[in-house]
Amino acid sequence: MLAACAVALAMSGCGTVLSPTGSHAAPGPAASSSGPRTYTVSSPVSTVVVNGGAGTITVTGTSAATVVVTEDAYYSDSAKPPSTSHVDRDGTLTLAYSCPLQLTCGVSYVVSVPRRDAVQVSDREGAITLASLAGPLRAQTVGGVITATGLASPRATFKSTAGGISAAFLAVPASVSASTTAGPITLRLPPSAAYRVHAHAYVGSSTVTVRQSTTASSVITASSDVGSITIATN
Hints:
Shape: globular
Largest sheet: 11 strands, mixed
Distance between the termini: 37 Å
Radius of gyration: 18 Å
Order of helices and strands: HEEEEEEEEEEEEEEEEEEEE
Helix content: under 10%
Structural class: mainly beta
């Protein structure tokens, strides 16, 4: 049932994904905002986790040793803004929020992290944008596209139920996994290596133009129920 809804959403744009609180995820015309809030986490962290719900998430790697977070909340009931949290425990920084029950509520995040930190991002509705990251990477969304550029991550996993995935690597990864229920997948890889590729589109075409070898140490896996797959060099 979820797969059927995802295909309908991706192909026609109909339907509404609900946030974990049960509120409508997409901001409506009546949504208000308290304005962006920015803060810096100076304590050293090796992993950054962003647990979104409804709203865009952007994570960029930098040469700085600190994490800088900008939160932008929106909500339809001016008396019930979402409650955001950031918890630093044992080197892992977790960003999250919760919403009181109302028609529209969500938080968008813009986060800059030390480039080599591990990053885990999850969202229910909204685009995920990742750039210049060199640590292990995991990103998933129910409804929204995932776009990643300038990656040097040794391992990366991308998953979208309804929305495309596009990822470009500057360094040869040890493993990449990308999967969609409904949406195209495009992976761009350095031409300097051969890759062990497993690509399958149930409805759609698969085009692989990178150099391939069954003994390659870099393993690339891509699967889509509905959507084309392209695996090519930069």
